[in-house]
User: Fold these one by one.
Assistant:
Number 1:
Amino acid sequence: MTMVLPTFHWIELVYLVATALFILSLMWMSAPTTARHGVWAGELGMALAIVGTLLERGIIDYRWIAIGLVLGAIIGVPLGLVQMTAVPQRTALSHAFGACCVTLVGTAEFYLRTPNVPKFMMSVLSMEVILGGLTFTGSLMAAGKLQEVLSQRPITYKGQNFVNLGMLAVAVAIAVALVLNPGHRNLFPVMVGISLLFGVMLIIPIGGADMPTVISLLNSYAGLSAAAMGFVLNSKLLIVAGALDGSSGFILSVIMSKAMNRSFTNVLFGAFGQVQASAAGAVEARTVRSASPEEAAGILAAANKVVIVPGYGMAVAQAQHKVRELYDVLTKRGVEVTFGIHPVAGRMPGHMNVLLAEADIPYDRLKEMDDVNSDLPQTDVALVIGANDVTNPAARTDTSSPIYGMPILDVDKAHTVMVIKRSMSPGFAGIDNPLYYLDRTLMLFGDAKGFVGDIVRELSGSQH
Amino acid sequence: MLAGFLGFQVIKRVSPLLHTPLMSLTNALDAIAVVGAIALAGAHETNFATILGTIAVMAAFSNVVSGFLITDRMLKMFKSSRPQK
C-alpha cells in the first residue's frame, strides 16, 4: 500500500521489531523455565504492532476501532479465565474467531478492490477466505462437540467423502474463475458460503478421540489463512505470524497423527467408531475382576513404583486435584510415582499436562510415552484413570482392531494394572479393550474423583 | 517460506509438555491479523468494509486478550519439583 515511499517508513521498523519478538517468543516457549518470557515477548510485540498501526496516517476514524477493541476485550477476558478443563473448547473457539477475522477482512478487501484485482492477489485472497471460512465453521463445530453441545459421536453417511471433496472442488473452481475475472461480484459470496458449509461437513464425521489432531489441523489452517491475508495486505508481520502459527499447527497435527498411527486423510475422511459391531460379539462371556477402594489402597501402599496414566475421563471428572492428593500421600510413603502421558490423551495436544500442572504436580514427574514404556515392565502398579484406547493392547496384537499399530502405553506389562472406570462401556472410539480381562487387571468401578478420593482417605487413615 | 521453515525449527523443539500453551500462544500471535482489521475499520472506505472491519477487530482482539491471558495462566502452573531459588 505505502510501498511507493522511497524512505524507510517507521511503521515498517515497528513491524520488524514485532516480528522478531514473535519469533523470540516461540523460541522461549521450548522450555518450561523460559516459557513465560515467551508470553511477555509476544505481548510486547503485539502491543507495539497495534499501537504502531493505530498511529499510522491511513486511519481517519477511530470510533469503530474503539468499539471493536472494547467488545473484543469484553469477550476475551472471560475466555481467558475459563477452567483448565475447558481449554480445548476455548482453543477451538479462538481458532474460529481468528478465522472469522481473516474471512471478514478478506471479503471486505475483495469488494473494495473488485474488479481490479491482480491475479496473484486474487489467488491468495481466495485462499484466505476459503481456508478462513472452513476454519471458522469447522472450529465452531469442534468447539460445540468439545463442549458437548453437539454429539461427540461421528455422523457419517454414504458418499460423504465424495460430497465433501466435491464441495471443495467447486470452491476451488470458483476461486479460479475469480482469478481469471475478478469482476464476478456474485461468485464471491458463493465461494465463501461453500467454504463455510465445507467446514461444517468436514467436522461432522469426526469423533471425540480424533479431536487433538483436528484442533491442530484447524490451528494450521487458521495460520495459513492469516499468512494469505498477509500477502493480500502486503504485511510481512502478518505473513510471518501466520506462517509460524500454520507450521506449529502442522507439526502438532503430524505428531498427533503419528501418535495414533493414522494419516491426515484417514483422520479427516475415515470416521472412527463405526466398526465396534465386529468386535462386540465375543466379549459377553469374559469376566473381569473388580476391587474396592480399600483393596486398591492396600496394593498401592505395598508398591515401590507406580505409574499413573490419566486420560480424558480424569478431565471429565475433574479428578486432577484428587490425583494430586494421591500423589502426595504415596510419595510421602516413599512410593515412586510418575505420570505416563500419551500424546493424544485428552482432547487436545498437551491437555493432560496442563490439568496435572493445574493441580500442582511438578512437571518433571510427567513422562512421555517412550520413557514410560521402558519403565513399565519394572513397575508394580499402573493406575489408569479415565484413559482407554491409549492403553489398549489390541493395538499391538490384534491386526483386525481399528487401532492396530497405534503406539500405546504398555500398562499391561506392569505387575498389576488398576483401571478406574465408570462402567464397562467402551471409550469414544467404541473399541473393546482386552486389557480389562487380564488376570493382573483390577477394575475399580466408580467416578474417578470419588474413587481416587476414597483411596486417598484409606491411605492417609491407615498411617495413624 | 522462510518464516515457515524457521517456525518448523523452533517448534520442533517444544516438548509435548507445553503443547497446549504453545497452541494458545501461536493463537494469540496469529491474532496479529487485528492490525489488518484495524486498518480496514479505520480507513472508512465504505460502510460495508467498516462494519466487517469492526467485527474483525472484535474477533481478533478477543483472541489477543484471551490467548495471552490463558497462556500465562497455564505456564504459571508448571512447577518443578526442585525448589526454585
Number 2:
Amino acid sequence: MGMKFKSTGILPGFGLTMGFTLAYLSLIVLIPLAALILKSTTLTWAQFVQEVTSPRVMASYKLTFGASLVGALINSVFGVIVAWVLVRYEFPGKKLVDAMVDLPFALPTAVAGITLTALYAPTGWIGRLLEPLGIPVAYTPLGVVVALTFIGLPFVVRTLQPVLESLDPEMEKAAVSLGAGRWYTVTRVILPTLAPAWITGSSLAFARAVGEYGSVVFIAGNMPMKTEITPLLIITKLEQYDYAGATSIGVVMLVISFTLLLAINWLQSRTGVHRIH
Amino acid sequence: MEMAPRVDEVKTYPVLDPARALTEPRWVRWVLIAVALSFIALFLLVPLAQVFASALDKGMGYYFNAVREPAALSAVKLTLVAAFFSVVFNSAFGLASAWAITKFRFPGKSLLITLIDLPFTVSPVVSGLIYVLLFGLQGLLGPWLKAHNLHIIFALPGIVLATVFVTFPFISRELIPLMQEQGSEEEEAAMVLGAGGRQIFWKVTLPNIQWGLLYGVILCNARAMGEFGAVSVVSGHIRGLTNTLPLHVEILYNEYDFTAAFAVASLLTFLAVLTLIAKTLVGLKYEKSRQTPAAQAESGIA
C-alpha cells in the first residue's frame, strides 16, 4: 500500500507493533486469500459463471442458505426467551444454564456432528420418537437445520444479554406510570429497544451457519441435489482435483462472508453492540 | 420518591401498581422459564449425555483401549502441537495489533480491524482451500516447494497454518476493546517517569490486560483443538501422521466404529466442559479487572 502511516501518540513501539501486525496479517490472511482470487482469474468469466451456477451448486446454495435462515430464525425466537429468562428471572441452576449456553462454541463441530446424528437417527433417542410421526431428521434437510440451530444457539443469547442488562429500568417505570400494562410495555417499549441487537445476533448466527461444515456433514447424508451443503461441495471438487470448481465456489463463499461481515459491522457500529465470538 | 397512593386510589387504577406492572404474571414467568430450559435441555444437555452414553456403550475396557491406541495418542499430540502454535502466534499478534491500534491514531484503522475480523466469517472449508491453492501441488508455490522438497499441505505446517487462520482474531478481538477502554494514561505516566517501552509493557500494560489475554487464550485454544473443516482440507487424513483428534473421530466414525469414535469424542467433550468452566471463572476476574478506577471509586462510595 502506498499510504504513509503517520501515528499520533507519544508512546513507543508503533513501528514494531504495526510492522508485525501488517506482516502477520498479510502472511496468514491476505496473501492466501489473494491466492484464491488470483487462481479464480485463470478462468474466463463464462467458465466461472458456469461453475458457480451449475444445478448441483445451485441446489447446495438453496439448502445452505435456506437451512441457515431457518436455524437463525429458530435461534432468534428461543434466544430472546433464553436471554430474557437468564437476565430477568431467578431459578435454581441459573448460573449453570448461563455457562452452558456457550457449549456450541466450545464443543468441536465434529463431535457435535456425530452426536446429533446419533440422537436423530431413526434408532436414536430423539429419532426414535420422531420416526413414527413420519418426521425423519437425520440425512434430510431437517437434520441440516438441527445442526445449524445447534451451532448458532449462543449468538442471539450472548448478543442480547448485555443489552437487556443495561436497559434503563426508568424507561419501564415511565411506561407504567403512563398507564401501560405489562404486555404493552414489553411489546411496545422493551422489544423495539432490543431489535438492533436481536437482528445483529441473528445475523451472526446466520453468517456462522452459512460456512459451517463439521457439524453438518455427518447428519446431512450428503446426497447431491438434496442434502449437500456448499462447503462440502468445495471439498468434493478438491478431492476430484477439480480446482477450477473448488476455487470458483470458494470465491462465491468468500464474497458472501465478506458482505455479511460488513453488514454485521455496520449494524454493530449503529447499535453499539459489541461482537461476541 | 413518590408518595404512597391511598388504598382507594390503588383500587381505582390497578394497572398503576408498579410491582405488578414491572414484571410478568407468575404463570407467564413459569412458562418462559420452562420453554427456555426445555430448549437448552434438548439442544445442549441431551447431546452431552449422548456423547458419554455412546462412548461407554461397550464398557470401560473398550473405552480406555480406544483412547489409548497409538493412532489416538498421536492425534492427541498433533492437536496439542497445533493448538500450542496457534495460541503463541495469535497471542503475539493480539498484543502487537492491540498496541498499534489502541495506542496510536493512523488512517485506515477501521479497515484494519475489519480485516482482522475476516477469518471469523470465512467458512472453515475456504480457510483450508486457500492454503491448498497456495502451497498444494497444483498451487501457486507448489512447484517451487516440490523442487525444494518442502511439505506444507498434508503435513504439520499446513495443519498449523489452517488452525492459526481459523483462530486468528480470537485474542486480538479480546484485547483491542479492552485496551481501548483502559486508555493510555498509565502508560504515558510511566513514560514521563522515565520507563522504557519494554518496561511499560511488562510492568504497566500486561498486568492490566492479563485476564483479558487469558480469556482470549482460552477461546483460541478451544477452537484450535476442535477445528475440523479447515484442518480436514489440508491434512490429507494420514492416519498416525496428520490426524488431529477431530479428524481421528471422523475416521473411526466412517469405519463404523461408533463406540471408539465417541470415546475419542468424549475427550474433546471434556475439553469443552473444562473450557466452559475456565471461561466462566476467568470471565468473573476479567469483568472485575475491566472496571475502570473511576467506576470502582464510584461503586465504593455507593
